[in-house]
Write a structure and sequence with these properties.
Keywords: Acyltransferase, Lipid biosynthesis, Lipid metabolism, Transferase. Pfam families: Acyltransferase. One of its GO terms (molecular function) is 1-acylglycerol-3-phosphate O-acyltransferase activity. With 273 residues, the protein is α/β, with parallel strands linked by helices. The chain contains ten helices and seven strands. The chain has a single domain, classed as 3-Layer(aba) Sandwich (Glycerol-3-phosphate (1)-acyltransferase), CATH 3.40.1130. Helices cover 43% and strands 13% of the residues. The chain has a seven-stranded mixed β-sheet with strand order 1-7-6-2-5-3-4, with helices on both faces. Helix 1 packs across helix 2 and helix 2 runs antiparallel to helix 3.
Length: 273
C-alpha cells in the first residue's frame, strides 16, 4: 500500500470527497513523506536524537496544522524552558499546534506506536510511551519524573479532557508530582482557535459526544483558523505541596486564558456564549 493510500485510510479521506478534502490529503501526504525523509536523514529510525529532534518536530507539526487549515501564531515568544509543560486541551488539533512551538516531547499511550503511518513517526519523534495500568497516575508520574531528570521536557494536558476552550476545567494535579520529584519548573501555555470573523472557532473543539471522524470533517471542510499560543510565567515546585502547585497552576492558566482571549478575540460575546 502506498503512503498516500495509507494516509487516506488512516484519516478516512479520499480525493473523491471533493477538491478541498483532496487537497488536504495531498498536503498530509507531503507532510508525512517529509517527516519520513527527515527521520532517515537524521538516523532517527535507529535511535531518536533527542538533542536535535525538537526543531524537526516543530516543522512537522506546523506543516501538519497548516495542511489541516490551521495557522499557528505565538502571541509572545515561547521559551525553550526545560520543564514539565502544561496546556489547556480543546482538540486533537492541540498536538500539532503545541508541537509547533514547544521543545517538549509528548506523552502517549503505548498503543499509539502500533498505529499505521503515525505510529512509526511518533516513535522517531521521541514520543515518551507510557504503559498505563488500571489508571495508575502515580506510576505515570514516576515515569515522567524520570524523563525530566534525564533532561527531556514533557508536555501534558492537566484538564485530562477536551473542552470548548472558553475556560479552564478543574485541573488534575496528580501528574504534577513529576515536577516536584524532578525539581523542575512547570511551564504553562494556553491556546485558542479563532475564525476569520475574529471569534472563538466552533469547528476545531472536539469534546462531548462529537465523533472523531465528524470532527476531522468539520475541520477539513471549514475555513482557515488561527491557533494562538500564549506562554505564561513558569511555576516552581520548591516548598509546595502538590495541591498547592495544582491550585497555583489552575489560577495562572485561567488568568492566562482570559488574557489571551482579551488580546485576540474581536467579539468577547463569543467567549461568554
Amino acid at each position: 500500500m502506498s503512503l498516500k493510500s495509507k494516509i487516506e485510510d488512516a484519516f478516512k479521506l479520499t480525493a473523491k470527497n471533493g477538491m478541498k478534502r483532496g487537497k488536504t490529503v495531498m498536503g498530509l501526504v507531503d507532510t508525512v513523506a517529509g517527516g519520513y525523509r527527515a527521520a532517515t536523514k537524521i538516523d532517527a529510525w535507529r535511535e531518536p536524537p533527542r538533542d536535535i529532534l525538537p526543531k524537526y518536530i516543530q516543522v512537522f507539526c506546523r506543516k501538519s496544522a497548516r495542511a489541516l487549515g490551521v495557522e499557528v501564531v505565538e502571541v509572545e515568544p515561547v521559551p525553550k524552558t526545560h520543564a514539565l509543560w502544561a496546556s489547556n486541551h480543546i482538540s486533537w488539533m492541540d498536538i500539532p499546534v503545541v508541537g509547533s512551538v514547544s521543545p517538549a516531547f509528548f506523552l502517549s499511550k503505548a498503543e499509539v506506536a502500533k498505529m499505521p503511518v503515525m505510529g512509526p513517526l511518533a516513535k522517531v519523534a521521541g514520543t515518551l510511551f507510557i504503559k498505563r495500568g488500571s489508571g495508575d497516575a502515580g506510576s505515570v508520574a514516576s515515569q515522567m519524573a524520570t524523563f525530566l531528570k534525564q533532561g527531556y521536557s514533557v508536555m501534558f494536558f492537566p484538564e485530562a479532557t477536551t473542552t470548548d476552550g472558553r475556560k479552564i476545567k478543574k485541573l488534575h494535579g496528580k501528574l504534577l508530582q513529576a515536577a516536584i520529584d524532578a525539581n523542575k519548573p512547570v511551564q504553562p501555555i494556553v491556546i485558542c482557535y479563532i475564525n476569520k470573523e475574529g471569534e472563538l472557532d466552533d469547528t476545531v473543539p472536539y469534546y462531548g459526544g462529537i465523533k472523531l471522524k465528524d470532527s476531522l470533517m468539520s475541520v477539513i471542510d471549514g475555513d482557515l483558523v488561527t491557533a494562538y499560543v500564549l506562554p505564561l510565567q513558569p511555576l516552581y515546585p520548591e516548598d509546595k505541596t502538590r495541591d498547592e502547585l495544582t491550585a497555583e497552576l489552575q489560577e495562572r492558566m485561567q488568568a492566562g486564558l482570559e488574557e489571551l482571549h482579551s488580546r485576540v478575540v474581536k467579539s468577547q460575546q463569543s467567549v461568554s456564549e
